[in-house]
């Protein structure tokens, strides 16, 4: 069984890493805040003191980090320690350019796969994510299947690219629902009536996400994803959505809350 190093035990990473416990894979975990790793150690994982220590003997390295800056910092430590034959599965949402830059830093014999995920914390905790996997996936597909359903998207970077498309649609849709509720408020429509009617229309899935509970997509990370999208193409609507979410994220009570809290902020700020 492959030795796996999992780096990044945030809201999503913790649920994903838990799917590897009890699978027979020797699992080493690292997190910037070591206390978050304690439950995994109690269930048999090994805690590494640094990213370099985590990956030194790993066959498969998995990173699930907040943003390009966090990935860059980890890469500085990890790249010199990766052994020939190792796979690095990059599952953060960082965009295709960052993935390609990372690939250029790797030594001979190390295979990079970009495999960001679709789904929130509820699906991460139950192994029901959608994995958008780009590059040479064959060697790690069995490992990725522990997290959910694997879709091969094409060459390296294509998974990261498709994830931006998916997140732009979700974030944009959620912002549109928030504005629809602003309009409903302005026109004196009962809130429950407006929500139910919208939920029964073509935006039904997005309406559910806009008012979701017990899931987590950090508002500050939505800002990061919308920013990546608007830098990749000319997207006037997403430019406006980005401004909505930037204003919401400026509120300390919303910054690290789920995007449903941002919907409320957008709505009530009007």
From TrEMBL:
Transmembrane regions listed in the UniProt entry: none
Boundaries of every 6-phosphogluconate dehydrogenase NADP-binding domain copy: 3-151
Stored Gene3D superfamilies: N-(1-d-carboxylethyl)-l-norvaline Dehydrogenase, domain 2 (1.10.1040.10), NAD(P)-binding Rossmann-like Domain (3.40.50.720)
Keywords: Oxidoreductase
Oxidoreductase is among the record's keywords: yes
SUPFAM superfamilies found in the cross-reference section: 6-phosphogluconate dehydrogenase C-terminal domain-like, NAD(P)-binding Rossmann-fold domains
The enzyme's E.C. designation: 1.1.-.-
Keyword Transmembrane helix tagged: no
The protein's enzyme class: oxidoreductase
Protein family per UniProt: Belongs to the HIBADH-related family.
This protein's name: NAD(P)-dependent oxidoreductase
